UniProtKB/TrEMBL annotation:
SUPFAM superfamilies, sorted: beta-beta-alpha zinc fingers
Full protein name: C2H2-type domain-containing protein
Keywords associated with the record: DNA-binding, Metal-binding, Nucleus, Repeat, Zinc, Zinc-finger
PANTHER family xrefs: EG:115C2.6 PROTEIN (PTHR24391:SF18), HISTONE H4 TRANSCRIPTION FACTOR-RELATED (PTHR24391)
Length: 450
């Protein structure tokens, strides 16, 4: 019998506001329940603390002075609860292992402003993520086809600044075309449909969530090994996904930078060769090239936004969720944090940033054109050292990308090496570029050492 999709199974939404623990099976009722908590709490908090509002969700320590920000934050806890429930159902259905990092279960992304629709200048703003996603889906489902001058019939995305369109090619039905457009809309809304019930991380689909759990399987059970970096993986799918990032198929038309997929190339062109900054801060003249950068920036205007480390005895607090995660990884991971070592001397560092400064200052390494960082790979001794080569396709595509879909370079069938590990062969049409040429040998696409 065909399994019922987890999204159509009964909901079990547990409220974690203080000691509530109510369980509801209807999403609308759940949001109403959370709203009632907010209004009761707002009156008490304003009276007792003069306006300081603390989120009372279990394991969440964020503070606010603005009630609207707290309410939006609380609604996202509700959405997070729903997708964690879907993650739990997927875990049970597929009999997956458990996540080994349970300490961030209820830490959610920063939300300094509402969810704004930018479909064809719609500009509606929502405080509840579910309402925003459904609203954008309606735009996609009601989209009309257009006929281009060359006769192609397409369904274009009307999100501001997006050039994506789905080409029907005379085969796809209206339902299929609009469904594809709906799926594409997630690249703009950043919707995540599953969350890990243990660590709280959000994932775009079930496959990415199951990969998250599979990656945490004990290393001795890994039977798939990458021939480029010797890392091992629990499944062939994760291995092939990993190997795609080793081979660069796309060359920047402006410099010698090469990238593994169109999305990475688009990101490079935007940051290195474009002065366009379409995202404006509502509080100051700052403008950013991507919405995420604006989100990080605006969080520093929110004096009420604060993330506290919840490890007992630690009083560390910071405004950025990313910095809180870095703190936890480096201070509380009990030796599991990454360690970086210089491949030319005995110097060791706790971060790649510090090792990069060492390589540049002491050993005079330079980045090739288009690069702004070094890449490091893990060696057999557990230290991360400079990756001294990269793989490029013999058939590089030198064109500016037009969409956010990644490439799908072919990876040969999995075989076995001498120690019994299954490995994926290097793609046939690749060349190896040495990154450690001297300045006389540097060709513009390698790390150079004067």
């Amino acid at each position: 019998m065909k399994r019922k999709c987890v999204k159509f199974q009964a909901l079990k939404l547990r409220c974690e506001w203080e000691h509530c623990q109510s369980i509801l099976d209807d999403l609308g009722s759940f949001y109403e329940h959370l709203t009632s908590h907010y209004y009761r709490h707002e009156g008490i908090a304003t009276e007792v603390t003069g306006g300081q509002l603390a989120c009372k969700w279990n394991e969440c320590t964020v503070m606010f002075t603005n009630g609207a920000n707290l309410l939006r934050h609380l609604y996202f806890h509700g959405y997070h609860t729903k997708v964690k429930w879907w993650g739990w159902l997927a875990h049970q259905e597929l009999n997956l292992g458990s996540c080994q990092a349970p300490l961030n279960r209820n830490i959610i992304p920063e939300l300094p402003c509402g969810f704004k629709c930018e479909w064809d200048n719609c500009s509606m703003v929502f405080d509840i993520a579910d309402e925003f996603y459904i609203h954008v889906y309606d735009h996609a489902i009601l989209a009309e086809k257009e006929t281009l001058p060359d006769g192609k019939v397409v369904f274009p995305c009307k999100w501001v600044g997006c050039n994506y369109s789905y080409d029907t090619r005379g085969k796809a039905s209206l339902c299929v075309a609009r469904s594809k457009l709906k799926d594409h809309s997630r690249t703009h809304t950043k919707e995540r449909c599953y969350a890990c019930p243990w660590c709280g991380n959000l994932y775009v689909n079930k496959t990415k969530f199951t990969d998250h759990l599979d990656r945490q399987a004990a290393e001795e059970t890994h039977s798939f090994q990458c021939t480029h970096c010797s890392r091992t993986f629990a499944t062939e799918r994760i291995l092939k996904d990993h190997m795609r990032h080793h081979v660069n198929h796309y060359k920047c038309p402006e410099c010698a930078m090469t990238c593994p997929n169109p999305s990475a190339l688009k990101h490079h062109v935007r940051y290195k060769h474009s002065d366009d900054r379409p995202f404006a801060c509502p509080y100051c003249p700052y403008r950013s090239k991507e919405s995420y950068d604006l989100q990080v920036h605006t969080s520093f205007h929110q004096s009420d936004l604060l993330y506290n480390c919840h490890v007992e005895g630690c009083d560390y607090a910071v405004r950025s969720l990313q910095n809180l995660r870095y703190h936890f990884r480096t201070k509380h991971m009990e030796g599991k944090a990454k360690c970086y070592a210089c491949h030319l001397c005995e110097k060791k560092q706790t971060t790649g940033f510090h090792l990069t400064n060492h390589l540049r200052a002491v050993h005079n390494f330079q980045w090739p054109p288009g690069h702004s960082r070094f890449k490091y790979k893990e060696w057999e001794d557990g230290f991360f050292r400079l990756q001294t080569f990269r793989f490029e396709s013999a058939q590089l595509t030198e064109a500016e990308p037009h969409c956010d879909t990644g490439c799908d370079p072919s990876v040969k069938d999995v075989t076995c090496n001498t120690d019994g590990k299954k490995v994926a062969d290097q793609p046939e049409s690749t060349t190896t570029t040495d990154h450690l040429h001297t300045s006389q040998q540097a060709s513009g696409n390698s790390y150079s050492k004067p």
